[in-house]
Write a structure and sequence with these properties.
Blueprint lengths: L15 H10 L1 H18 L2 H20 L14 H63 L3 H31 L9 H6 L5
């Protein structure tokens, strides 16, 4: 019987076509009935319901005990049989409604727990990814030179440049004179010129 089937697709949105199919199959009316019973069960779980039920029972007992005899409808001699039947009928309907509301709440809780589990798995995967990235960054930073290493390298380069500059300045005068005579390039020309020319 489809009346007692449990709706397992509480988290899935319904399209227009599926809503029509639900109405035709009777699941839509089951859903409305379920919402209605949940509202009744929610109402019975409030202090106002207990207060009203207590006022009703007290008024019933008082009226049928001290009220005019011709207007009494439940006999105290019979143990208020009508009140007992009404309260038994109310309890017999309240118990299944409460169970139905609990079943629907269990379905919603199951869907919520599944969604929370998937979210937790995504969060765990994101956390693991970020942890791997942090480790990779730490390893990359560890391989980078630090300030002291860079200073030492710069000092070594400056010392090498200074040494090359000293060597270059000591070799420069010899190369400037070259193989030419100390008189310069024009001296050979003056020697070749004959007197009187």
């Amino acid at each position: 019987m489809s009346f007692f089937k449990r709706n397992t697709g509480l988290d899935a949105p319904r399209s227009a076509r599926s809503a029509r199919e639900l109405r035709r199959s009777g699941s839509g009316s089951n859903e409305r009935f379920g919402r209605w019973t949940e509202s009744i069960a929610r109402g019975m779980g409030t202090p106002w319901f207990l207060a009203l039920l207590t006022v009703f029972c007290v008024a019933w007992l008082v009226w049928n005990t001290i009220g005019p005899m011709e207007f009494r409808f439940d006999s105290a001699a019979l143990g208020f049989t009508a009140l007992t039947l009404i309260l038994s009928l109310q309890a017999s309907y309240a118990a299944p409604m409460i169970l139905l509301a609990q079943n629907r709440q269990d379905d919603r809780d199951r869907v919520q727990i599944e969604q929370d589990r998937k979210q937790a798995e995504r969060n765990l995967a994101d956390t693991e990814f970020l942890a791997r990235e942090v480790v990779a960054l730490r390893l990359a930073i560890k391989d980078l030179p630090d300030r002291d290493f860079v200073r030492q390298e710069l000092k070594a380069l400056l010392a090498e440049l200074a040494a090359e500059e000293v060597e270059g300045s000591s070799q420069q005068p010899e190369s400037a004179m070259g193989p030419e005579s100390p008189q310069g390039p024009d001296s050979t020309r003056h020697d070749q010129v004959k007197p009187g020319e």
